[in-house]
Design a protein that fits this description.
Layout (H helix, E strand, L loop, with lengths): L1 E6 L3 E10 L4 H13 L4 E12 L1 H16 L4 E4 L3 H9 L7 E3 L2 H8 L9
Parallel strand pairs: 2-3, 3-4, 4-5
Antiparallel strand pairs: 1-2
Helix pairs in contact: 1-2
Length: 119
């Protein structure tokens, strides 16, 4: 798994590619923890390049979402490919984690004028 971080007006965007599994989850956990410690701010996880996710990867996303909420920020998963989207759906996480079909849509959800904006 590779992760590329970029800053946008309303959120940091972490673009993931490859496989998010037990072998790579710790790297993502560390990156997301750094973002949380950097201060208040929203986060978009761009999943468009992610080809696979397992339970270890899901656990990192759930923990990051909880941490963001505790900090008064929001996290949105963006553009998951069909196989990843299916795992999110089958595990019931689409009811727990906010998802968007594109990064632009995710950023729009985090814009100050967006309904429910908490940032």
């Amino acid at each position: 798994m590779e992760a590329v971080l970029s800053q946008h007006p309303y959120a940091a965007v972490v673009a993931l590619s490859g496989e998010l599994d037990a072998d790579t989850a710790a790297r993502l956990r560390a990156l997301l923890a750094e973002q949380l410690l950097a201060g208040p701010g929203n986060l978009v996880i761009d999943m468009s390049g992610l080809t696979f996710i397992d339970s270890a990867g899901l656990a990192v996303l759930v923990a990051a979402d909880k941490g963001m909420r505790r900090a008064g920020s929001r996290m949105v998963l963006a553009a998951p490919r069909a196989p990843v989207s299916k795992v999110l759906r089958l595990t019931g996480l689409t009811a727990v984690l906010t998802t968007a079909t594109t990064v632009d849509e995710a950023l729009g959800l985090l814009a100050p004028e967006a309904p429910g904006f908490a940032g």
